[in-house]
User: Which sequence fits this backbone?
């Protein structure tokens, strides 16, 4: 008879819970993908917001210039029998006849693109009443906008696609309306398109492009 004999205790097998290496790798990869997507969405949203904000600031600075051109064109009047109230010389030069000094006589205002700059100057009329003539140099030149990169700032009006350079000038019409009858008075109003593409280094994501349609109001000659 054996003394002090103890029956061996059998331990139950325990199941150890946890993640396998493959599961850890997959979870880590999925986390990285989710974080990358979230980061890109936030970055794109911030980039878009900043781009729109900067574009808006530049547009706000340009709007007073556009308003000045619009005011000159809207108040333009025919100065004599051979010149219209608004004369498009070419895509980068525009002549507008309007009173800017308050004396009732239309000055001849010139808007011209030179070296990427929109410049405004004018000369005073000769004569005290219609018809008026102009001679001499343009004075009081001011630079209104810089960093203009397009050449056709004043495209011809009445185009099916006024900003398409493939359409030749000779195929375009300049008059707003024609007299309905032979006894109808002529209509001296003029239409004008403006297209500005401005390269501004402070704007993210590219250039600023502005389109504007203008029209002179006066149907008759100047006084």
Assistant:
């Amino acid at each position: 008879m054996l003394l002090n004999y103890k029956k061996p205790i059998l331990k139950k097998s325990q199941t150890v819970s946890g993640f396998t290496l493959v599961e850890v790798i997959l979870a880590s990869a999925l986390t990285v993908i989710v974080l990358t997507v979230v980061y890109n969405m936030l970055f794109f949203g911030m980039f878009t917001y900043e781009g729109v904000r900067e574009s808006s600031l530049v547009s706000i600075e340009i709007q007073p210039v556009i308003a000045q051109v619009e005011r000159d064109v809207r108040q333009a009047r025919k100065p004599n029998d051979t010149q219209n109230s608004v004369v498009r010389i070419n895509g980068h030069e525009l002549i507008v006849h309007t009173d800017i000094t308050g004396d009732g006589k239309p000055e001849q205002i010139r808007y011209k693109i030179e070296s990427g700059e929109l410049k405004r100057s004018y000369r005073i009329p000769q004569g005290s009443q219609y018809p008026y003539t102009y001679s001499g140099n343009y004075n009081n030149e001011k630079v209104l906008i810089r960093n203009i990169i397009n050449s056709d700032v004043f495209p011809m009006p009445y185009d099916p696609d006024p900003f398409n350079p493939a359409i030749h000038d000779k195929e375009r019409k300049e008059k707003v309306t024609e007299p309905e009858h032979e006894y109808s008075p002529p209509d001296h109003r003029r239409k004008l398109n403006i297209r500005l593409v401005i390269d501004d280094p402070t704007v993210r994501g590219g250039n600023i492009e502005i389109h504007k349609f203008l029209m002179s109001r006066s149907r008759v000659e100047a006084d």
